[in-house]
């Protein structure tokens, strides 16, 4: 029976035992790095180093292993490596199975401790008050724009961005009913409702749309209503006796969310891909234009500009600006000085690494 495979399986066993030895050799080296990090109070997670390491392996890779598989394998190797160095906790908008949860696992691997929070504010609090080392929050969506709640929380909590990661979002409608016609109420986070507006209006026009603070709250409410349904990740209903009534219901198939990985303290190190700034400007003609001129004169590309109301002062705004430059390095000091001169207040939310999707 085994004859056609016998020799090949023997060779695979040989390779696996070599891989095992090498993985343990790597783990031992990582433990040594961990000891140095603990002494020097360096952060365990170094997204820049991880990104460079994987890009280098992709360049060396001659196949037949596809780079996509290589990336996934290394995500788990690195996740285990960090876990060996120290326990690493990540706060996310729960419950398990939300898009935030999967974005965390896609970026950071499965060897971390993911701690669900009941709302986005609790994620910011967990990081700001040191209850967890990391947090992951949605920041903007390719269909629906900025996540206002996350932006407002940056105004209130002192946290720093350590990395950004992009996750593809495919929404499913999970319900208690047998069919779509019997759905009477759809409970969902407002972001998910907004990303599925057209489908909801055309397919379940009879259903009342009820925004909730989180997908967890939506599931609880859906379970209390005979015609209740909830929008979420394909796996969401599995533990909650809800069945998937329709898949991929977002208005455009190519739906992506940008998530930010937060830490308490900024970490200045090697050059990063991007910087996020939060500024308020004097109420004078041309104030914003002067800031934009600083970037254009320094040949710095701006990838986002969005304003949010300053809640404690009406008709005043905070500007969120993302640029493709590391403004934490000494070379960027002149740009930072000019920005400070032109702003009423200026906060660097982080200079950080982009993890590819
Ligand atoms: O180089 C480091 O700083 C390490 O801790 C090692 C290592 C790795 O396993 O390669 C682990 C965690 C860091 O996020 C980056 C890389």
Automatic annotation (TrEMBL):
Catalytic activity as recorded in UniProt: prephenate + H(+) = 3-phenylpyruvate + CO2 + H2O; chorismate = prephenate
The keyword DNA-binding is annotated on this UniProt entry: no
General function of this protein: Catalyzes the Claisen rearrangement of chorismate to prephenate and the decarboxylation/dehydration of prephenate to phenylpyruvate.
Domain ACT: 276-353
EC number: 4.2.1.51, 5.4.99.5
Entry-linked SMART domains: CM_2
Positions marked as site (Essential for prephenate dehydratase activity): 257
One Pfam family cited in the UniProt record for this chain: ACT
Swiss-Prot/TrEMBL keywords: Amino-acid biosynthesis, Aromatic amino acid biosynthesis, Cytoplasm, Isomerase, Lyase, Multifunctional enzyme, Phenylalanine biosynthesis
UniProt xrefs under PROSITE patterns: ACT (PS51671), CHORISMATE_MUT_2 (PS51168), PREPHENATE_DEHYDR_2 (PS00858), PREPHENATE_DEHYDR_3 (PS51171)
GO molecular function: chorismate mutase activity; prephenate dehydratase activity
GO cellular-component term (any): cytoplasm
Subcellular location: Cytoplasm
NCBIfam families, sorted: PRK11898.1 (NF008865)
Pathway the protein acts in: Amino-acid biosynthesis; L-phenylalanine biosynthesis; phenylpyruvate from prephenate: step 1/1; Metabolic intermediate biosynthesis; prephenate biosynthesis; prephenate from chorismate: step 1/1
GO BP, sorted A to Z: chorismate metabolic process; L-phenylalanine biosynthetic process
Domain Chorismate mutase: 1-89
Record protein name field: Bifunctional chorismate mutase/prephenate dehydratase
Record-annotated Prephenate dehydratase domain positions: 89-264
Keyword Cytoplasm: yes
